[in-house]
Design a protein that fits this description.
By secondary structure, the chain is of the alpha/beta class. It contains 14 helices and 8 strands. α3 packs across α14 and α8 crosses α9. The longest helix is centred in the N-terminal third of the chain and has 21 residues. It is globular and about 70 Å long.
Length: 312
């Protein structure tokens, strides 16, 4: 018994020493707002007290396009599209709960359903009655679910390497996504978020490495360490898998464009074909030598394809 207690105490001391040595402290929200919330960034307040980081670009009377980012990303992933589409469309992007400069939210709802409701409240606050909605990765699942729940508000749906369909795990899954749901590792990530973890994740998600730079790595790393965000991420990763998108895929009535990176190692391209087969009349475009984030990896081509689809 004494030997067992000695081992347990020794283990606890090793973990404590590791946290003390390798811990990465939180960054205050106010510090990051000064660094990143430059025009056209703005903040809006939702009924439940959430303070949302939003970018609303382009003519206010133009057809609206709402952009929903993926897990551990932010609205900045959509800037390549916004800069190419904001002459034709009103382009709205925002940081989801537990992400970017929105960060942790008062209701602690980081579920897919919570994010759908959050998207609706942002659209309502901005006066958007009917709009096209696009989503990447986790945000693709949110966009698809929004289209299922609110068919009368969606003029078109754009799925970009989207989550929501049951597919085999990809061949190049970042450490955080592969192990972040494991309770012990999830707890450690509350205290230790090294920069290399971000670099590893981006290198596994992105095939066209030339778009990865120090600014991008720092941006992801900063937002991951904003006060409250790591706890929000842990709460989100603790949630069970959701199958609502697949279960209600037949409810999607909007014209749908599916864009996918052929070499996506996180959500394999087979998922693109599953969405295409499940949504009647959908259009599928696959980009060769492209990974999980086509809106950044092939910005010119993917934005042109979106413009053509929405203005046909």
């Amino acid at each position: 018994m004494r030997t067992f207690l000695t081992v347990v105490v020794g283990f606890i001391l090793i973990v404590a020493a590791l946290i003390w040595y390798a811990a990465t402290p939180d960054i205050a929200r106010s510090v990051l707002e000064v660094k990143y919330a430059r025009p056209p960034s703005e903040f809006i307040d939702l009924p439940d007290g959430a303070r949302v980081h939003v970018r609303d670009q382009g003519p206010r009377d133009a057809p609206a396009l709402v952009l929903v980012h993926g897990s551990n990303a932010s609205l900045f992933t959509w800037e390549p599209w916004a800069s190419r589409l904001d002459k034709t469309f009103r382009v709205v992007s925002f940081d989801l709960p537990g992400h970017g400069l929105t960060g942790a939210v008062p209701n602690h709802d980081y579920s897919q359903e919570g994010m759908v409701k959050f998207t609706q409240e942002v659209a309502d606050k901005l006066g958007l009655k009917k709009f096209a909605i696009a989503g990447n990765s986790m945000g693709g699942g949110v966009a698809a679910r929004f289209a299922e729940e609110h068919p009368n508000r969606v003029s078109a749906l754009i799925l970009v390497d989207a989550g929501g369909m049951p597919t085999p795990q990809g061949s190049s899954v970042p450490f955080v996504f592969k192990y972040g749901r494991t309770p012990g590792i999830r707890w450690l990530l509350l205290h230790i978020t090294p920069r290399w973890l971000v670099t590893e994740g981006l290198n596994k998600a992105i095939v066209r490495k030339q778009i990865i730079n120090e600014r991008m790595i720092d941006e992801y790393w900063d937002f991951a360490r904003m006060a409250g965000t790591r706890q929000a991420t842990a709460e989100r990763f603790a949630l069970p898998w959701n199958h609502d998108v697949q279960n209600h895929i037949g409810d999607i009535k909007a014209p749908t464009l599916i864009l996918w990176g052929e070499k996506d190692g996180l959500i394999p391209v087979i998922a693109a074909h599953e969405f295409h087969d499940a949504i009647p009349g959908s259009k599928l475009i696959i980009y060769p030598n492209t990974g999980h984030i086509p809106q950044e990896e092939v910005a010119d081509q993917s934005a042109a394809d979106v413009r053509a689809f929405l203005t046909r």
